[in-house]
Amino acid sequence: ESFRIQSVGQSVRFQPFSHLPINRRQMKQAASTAAVDMIDIYDDEAEDAQKDKYLTFSIGNEDYVIEICYVTEIVVMQVITRVPDMPEFIRGVINLRGTIISVMDMRSRFHLDGKEYDDRTCIIVVDVNEMQIGLIVDSVKEVVDIPASQIDPPPTTHSGIKTSYVQGMGKIDENVKIILNVGKILYEEELEKLQQLSSEAVS
Predict the structure, then answer these.
(1) Would you say residue 37 has pLDDT above 80?
(2) How far, in Å, CA of 103 to CA of 87, rounded?
(3) Pick from 55, 92, 66: nearest CA to 77
(4) CA nearest neighbour of 16 among 143, 106, 130
(5) Closest CA to 105 of 14, 94, 179
(6) 3-state class (DSSP) for residue 119
């Protein structure tokens, strides 16, 4: 594996280094502990270091994965400021070290019943079309390897239309994980609203 875990006070940072192994147990514990203020995933090495690597997290009773290259950092729950005239699943914005980031509740996005946020709830900050968005998930688990040979196309509905934000189905041992397409979690109109909100926050 290709991540090093470096503790900085109460923060835990993940840095990609191809010659150092990952301690998955330590990463899982760090990501699910309330004492962890922040987890950073840096992208200062070659893209090859992140090839076939996916971050796993849970929403409800299901585990999902996204490509690690989209993830910029993971933080515990922050104070969320509500913003009017936004979709219900957009909970509002957070101020992350001076940067205003819109946050999306993935349970609401997937039309699941709501759940009170707890010390395992995390915000995964991802880059979507050059804009940072926070994804609120029930818990973050670990980084896994899923080679392209172990990924099948997403299932189709009865009408033959693929689920818009499912990129594929990743096989890990005897398990199957749903790979989300980060670029399609938001529709074009929703992205435009968030981009406008980000622009107003900067100006």
Answers:
(1) no
(2) 11
(3) 92
(4) 143
(5) 94
(6) coil
DSSP for 38-94 reads EEEE---S-GGGGTTEEEEEEETTEEEEEEGGGEEEEEE----B--SSS-TTEEEEE
- Tokens at residue 128, please? 């979507």
Residue in this structure with the two tokens 């690597």, named with its chain if needed: 53
What are the Cα distances from residue 115, in Å, to 9, 109, 110? 30, 13, 13
Does the pLDDT of residue 199 top 70, yes or no?
Answer: no
Mean pLDDT of 95-116: 91
The encoded tokens of residue 166 equal 């499912």
Which has the closest alpha carbon to 180: 116, 106, 114? 106
Least confident piece of the model among 33-42, 44-53, 115-124, 127-136: 33-42
Is residue 99 predicted with pLDDT exceeding 70?
yes
